[in-house]
């Protein structure tokens, strides 16, 4: 048995352990176990510094999860968009392939609480139908292995899946959606990486939410993946009392770059049954983006998105940097709230735009009106072309 498997075996997961270790009322612990079981492995448990801290909140069951039973179970409509079991096909050229129900820990905010942890709900029996679907749908060029966590599979099982996918010519890239580098970095072994690199291009999307999750162990895991040619991206979710603070997010993003993980997405939390207590306002998200853009490397800035309820997919959000736009120019503000004008050139999409050979006067009147707000300062805008 490998170290990571031993750590899974030593996880806290029974009602008795929840009562004893975290002082949870027995009836509540039983109800929580019924709703969405616990798994807290010794590595992740060891990152907790005090009760209620950002690590604790992510893994220790709380009574409040039982309070929003009216909320939606499958907010992203993954099941409705599942043509065969184990596959969700939402976007034209990508498919989500669920290969296991198991995870290194069971995150209390999980969007797939309805399925994760239950062997019956993501069954290996469905894999054959899923492979057939992927073989027949030649438009799919990108497959994301998820679950559960695909790195809960043994190297042998995972290799069987990768080998089969690599036989499908139209599948160009394979992504592994895994929290293992964060919650159980011992899973990222040289053997695993040696196996994975036979099936490149393979990408990993992982899920760090807080700077305390960046440890010697998780740094080693991410660097090992990078050394073996696996680009690693991070998807973070903004959550109350975990990371709803611009300084925390900035520290996390900067530290991720140091361990060669590229911040990829920052999500608003989904409207998920049993996880709504983690949700924050969109304004909080905007504030975080404002605190990053211009204040740190562009590489450290993830796409800020809402995964639209009802299966609409990821929709990007940006603070409003455009103050005015017409066919001749766009008026923008920068991260310091200073205002700039950029000539909007004529081309096939904008035949009435600025044309340097003919010469045009900028529409000073309308622009001045747009930029006369007290907070802004017009720096580049008295230019009149002839
Ligand atoms: S690792 Fe991912 S799938 Fe598993 S419980 Fe956490 S969020 Fe859910």
Compact summary:
The chain is an alpha/beta fold and 386 residues long. The chain has helices at 3-9, 15-22, 26-35, 42-45, 54-59, 127-136, 155-166, 180-183, 190-196, 216-227, 246-258, 282-292, 364-370, and strands at residues 87-88, 94-98, 142-146, 173-177, 202-206, 232-238, 261-268, 303-308, 313-316, 322-325, 329-333, 338-343, 377-380.
List the helices and strands and how they pair.
Elements: H1 3-9, H2 15-22, H3 26-35, H4 42-45, H5 54-59, E1 87-88, E2 94-98, H6 127-136, E3 142-146, H7 155-166, E4 173-177, H8 180-183, H9 190-196, E5 202-206, H10 216-227, E6 232-238, H11 246-258, E7 261-268, H12 282-292, E8 303-308, E9 313-316, E10 322-325, E11 329-333, E12 338-343, H13 364-370, E13 377-380
Parallel strand pairs: 2-3, 3-4, 4-5, 5-6, 6-7, 7-8, 12-13
Antiparallel strand pairs: 1-2, 8-9, 10-11, 11-12
Bound molecules: iron/sulfur cluster.
Keywords:
single chain; alpha/beta; TIM Barrel; four-stranded mixed beta sheet; 13 strands; 17% strand; globular; disordered C terminus; binds iron/sulfur cluster
Poorly predicted tracts of residues: 362-386
Order of helices and strands: HHHHHEEHEHEHHEHEHEHEEEEEHE
CATH topology group of the largest domain: TIM Barrel
The shape is: globular
% residues in beta strands: 15-25%
Percent helix among the residues?
25-40%
Computed CA radius of gyration, to the nearest angstrom: 24 Å
CATH architectural arrangement of the largest domain: Alpha-Beta Barrel
What's the β-strand tally? 13
Give a structural overview.
There is one protein chain. The chain has 386 residues and is an alpha/beta fold. It has three domains: 3-67, no CATH class; 87-316, Aldolase class I (TIM Barrel, Alpha-Beta Barrel), CATH 3.20.20.70; 322-380, no CATH class. The protein contains 13 helices and 13 strands. It has helices at residues 3-9, 15-22, 26-35, 42-45, 54-59, 127-136, 155-166, 180-183, 190-196, 216-227, 246-258, 282-292, 364-370; strands at residues 87-88, 94-98, 142-146, 173-177, 202-206, 232-238, 261-268, 303-308, 313-316, 322-325, 329-333, 338-343, 377-380. A hairpin with a 5-residue loop joins strand 1 (87-88) and strand 2 (94-98). Helix 2 (15-22) packs across helix 3. It is globular and about 80 Å long. The chain starts with a helix and ends in a 6-residue tail after the last strand. Iron/sulfur cluster binds at residues 103, 106-107, 110, 112, 116, 148-149, 179.
